[in-house]
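Changelog-adjacent note: as of this version, every example in the card shows the full chain rather than a window. The one below runs 102 residues end to end.
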Amino acid sequence: MTPQEFLAYRRRTGWSLSTLARKLGITASRLADYESGHSRGHDRRPAPIPKVVELALRWLELEAHGRGDSCENWRAQVDELRAEIRRLPPEPVQRRSLNRTY
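Full-length structure tokens:
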């Protein structure tokens, strides 16, 4: 998902960054990074949208707008999302050193 697609998603759903952040359990500032494509601050770094966030956005959209579809169609889409989530590689764990100086 590109930053432009992310912004289009927010416009389509009508959700603010803070509303979407609450739904996803991610800070609004991190979502703003995804939307701009880079982090803010002195050391600007790329902020690609993780696949799991993209899948969560699709899930939320299905949940919000999928109620008009037939139950079988909605379930098929949910099953497709679940299968895609299972195929995701595990995200690397970032470990912090416990050897801190104070």
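Structural remarks: Residues 71-87 form the longest helix (17 residues).
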